[in-house]
Amino acid sequence: MASAARNGAAAAALMVAVSVLALAAAGSAQLQYGFYKGKCNGTDVEALVQSIVRARFARENPIVAYLLRMQFHECAVNGCDGGLLIDGPGTEKTAPPNLSVKGYDVIAAVKAELERKCPGVVSCSDIQILATRDAVALAGGAAYAVRTGRRDRRRSLAPDVRLPAPEFTAAQMVAYFGGLGLSAFDAVLLLGAHTVGATRCSAIKGSRLYRYGGRAGATDPGMDPGYAFVYKNYVCPNVPSSDNNAVFLDDQWSALKLDNHYYRNLQQRRGVLACDQNLYSDGSTRWIVDLLAKDSGLFTSLFPKALVKLSEVNVVTGTQGEIRKVCNRFN
Ligand code: HEM
After folding, report:
1. Which residues on neighbouring strands pair with residue 37, listed in sequence order?
2. I need a surface site. Which of 99, 114, 122, 143 has the fewest CB within 10 A?
3. Where is heme b bound in this sequence (predicted)?
4. Are 193 and 272 in contact (CB under 8 A)?
5. CB of 164 sitting under 6 A from ligand 1
């Protein structure tokens, strides 16, 4: 028994090591650390981004959730190319999963300031990645380095937006992230972003609380009954007027802190979205949840590596694309 447990622990450690190596090896050759050093008329680009994000975080700390979600919806659709930022009919921004993405104004504020200092130098896609990085550190996550040198793609089309559904199974999620070049371990780490932020009752009333499996009145048996009781009676009562009530993706006290609490909730069947809970109910990803739930330092150190990997998906570099003058319009 003891030796089985030891073998299990050794296998888990090996999987972590393999995953860390894979994370370290990933990325695009053209991106560089400190790409903007010496390119902005004496302004330290990364320090400027950080100061604007810090001021914004001090006023509105949910900005960390907005930026994390934005990075995912940006990078998963044609890569981290600023496509999500474009305004206008039929752009990525208008696709249903993006209608509730927030935080565009902080990207615009950083861009405006950088255009004053050094016009046409810093891309909107790099601003997104730098701003998310800074918000993560402010919310209790680790500070991490990111490579820059992305350019902005001249493409933003709603039909390109194929994001995962909240009811995805673990296998569907792993396949989806696999399509982005990310591993199952990365997928579970990245879903850990749901340790911050919120959704609305409308996202769980049908699928989890009142119509599980399409059956009227059925509640998801995979949800902790005590939690289901609280949601049904206090947070999301079965009346249309509760649709817009906020539901924290992690619990209220930890909902703006980047910690491993999300994984501990999953162990107690307290995941909010079906996809969250599915990471634990499926044996293929449960061991990763268990590992991250047990070791908060592990989540803190590995989460940025998965974010960095996401931030380098299908980037535009060199002379491709453009450096936009404003982030919500092509030049
Ligand atoms: C299978 C993958 C995923 C699914 C199905 C999913 C789904 C969702 C849904 C349905 C919401 C609620 C949106 C709303 O009610 O407005 C949400 C919120 C959020 N998601 Fe995800 N998500 C996934 C992966 C990710 C990843 C990879 C990240 C970032 C790395 C992320 C970050 C967030 C954050 C931070 C929020 C809260 C946003 C806020 O408070 O405004 N999600 N997600």
Report:
1. none
2. 99
3. 194
4. no
5. yes
Block residue for tokens 């696999």: 178
75 Cβ contact partners less than 8 Å away, ≥ 6 residues apart: 180, 310, 311, 313, 314
Ligand 1 within 6 A of CB of 199: yes
Q: How many CA atoms lie within 13 A of 88 on its CB side?
A: 11
Q: What is the distance of C-alpha 270 from the center of its chain?
A: 19
- Cα separation, 236 vs 245, in Å, equals 7
331 residues of the chain, pLDDT tens digit each? 344 444 444 445 544 444 444 443 344 559 999 999 999 999 999 999 999 999 999 999 999 999 999 999 999 999 999 999 999 999 999 999 999 999 999 999 999 999 999 999 999 999 999 999 999 999 999 999 999 999 999 999 999 999 999 999 999 999 999 999 999 999 999 999 999 999 999 999 999 999 999 999 999 999 999 999 999 999 999 999 999 999 999 987 778 899 999 999 999 999 999 999 999 999 999 999 999 999 999 999 999 999 999 999 999 999 999 999 999 999 9
Annotation-wise, does 160 bind a ligand?
no
Q: For domain 28-163, give the CATH number.
A: 1.10.520.10
Ligand 1 centre to CA of 249 (Å) is 9
Instruction: For residue 99, give every residue at least 6 positions away whose Cβ sits within 8 Å of its Cβ, in sequence order, or none.
Output: none
Cα 319 to the center of its chain, rounded Å: 28
Residue 261 catalytic? no
What is the C-alpha to C-alpha distance for residues 279 and 187, in angstroms, rounded to an integer? 10
| Matching fold, domains 28-163 and 170-308 | no
Q: How far apart are CA 81 and CA 126, in angstroms?
A: 8
| CATH fold for domain 170-308 | Peroxidase; domain 2 (1.10.420)
Query: Is 195 annotated to bind ligand?
Result: yes
Nearest CA to ligand 1 atom 20: 69
Is 92 annotated to bind a ligand? Reply is: yes
Q: State the Cα–Cα distance between residues 212 and 228, nearest whole angstrom.
A: 12
